[in-house]
Amino acid sequence: MSTPPESPTKAHLPGTVLVADEPQYLPETHLHDKPDVLKSVPEANLHNKSDFVKDLMFWRNKRLNVLVLLVTTATWVVLEIYGYNFITVASWVSMALVSFMFLWGSTHRILRKEDPDLSGMEISEQSAMESAKLLREQVEKSVRLIFCVGAEKEWFVFAGVVACLYAMSLVANCFDLLTLCYIGVVGGLTVPVIYVKYEHKIREYGERFKMKLQRLHIKIEEIMQKMKKKMAGEHREMKEKKME
């Protein structure tokens, strides 16, 4: 008795894809091993490029803040109070650093018999490009702010900026550049912390001050409109008298 011919399967037909009769299931480990987005991204890219400045301004690294304050205060005292020249102080500091590095390198060669590793003192191209990009963005923001304030329709914004610049010019007449730089550093390390701590109250007072300025602006506009109407009425009366 002859056996019936086998029916052609998809595997025997030309131009078809081989398909298994029984479904194959992936192991459970593959189903749960999904890539984590946060883990795949380097930690350096998760933070903003200006995190160092923010940490310095908001006292997140207290040792660094204390070091900056001590260095700036010592520089201001030496140059301003004791009257030393900047080049003299810079030469002394450079000599101290070179002497320390020479002693450290010599001691390192004597004890370990190898040259010291100075790779950590190199400035990478990426950090230099990021610093240059950050500086360019800040300059662009400053220039854009100047043009926006100059072309602003609200006069009190323009008046406030001009008043602040005029106040800064008066303050600058009482101090030299070194003292102004020292005041700027100390202010940059204290004002942001105070603002963050009392942000709600400062915004509340700022909104009240802004509302008062807007009311004053409306009153001045009403007075100007009345003066224009009065001048227009007087001009018409003058024309009528001339016509008579």
From TrEMBL:
<dbReference type="GO" id="GO:0005789">
    <property type="term" value="C:endoplasmic reticulum membrane"/>
</dbReference>
<feature type="transmembrane region" description="Helical">
    <location>
        <begin position="177"/>
        <end position="198"/>
    </location>
</feature>
<keyword id="KW-0812">Transmembrane</keyword>
<dbReference type="InterPro" id="IPR045064">
    <property type="entry name" value="Reticulon-like"/>
</dbReference>
<feature type="domain" description="Reticulon">
    <location>
        <begin position="53"/>
        <end position="244"/>
    </location>
</feature>
<protein>
    <recommendedName>
        <fullName>Reticulon-like protein</fullName>
    </recommendedName>
</protein>
<feature type="transmembrane region" description="Helical">
    <location>
        <begin position="154"/>
        <end position="171"/>
    </location>
</feature>
<keyword id="KW-0472">Membrane</keyword>
<feature type="transmembrane region" description="Helical">
    <location>
        <begin position="64"/>
        <end position="83"/>
    </location>
</feature>
<keyword id="KW-0256">Endoplasmic reticulum</keyword>
<dbReference type="Pfam" id="PF02453">
    <property type="entry name" value="Reticulon"/>
</dbReference>
<dbReference type="GO" id="GO:0009617">
    <property type="term" value="P:response to bacterium"/>
</dbReference>
<dbReference type="InterPro" id="IPR003388">
    <property type="entry name" value="Reticulon"/>
</dbReference>
<feature type="transmembrane region" description="Helical">
    <location>
        <begin position="89"/>
        <end position="106"/>
    </location>
</feature>
<keyword id="KW-1133">Transmembrane helix</keyword>
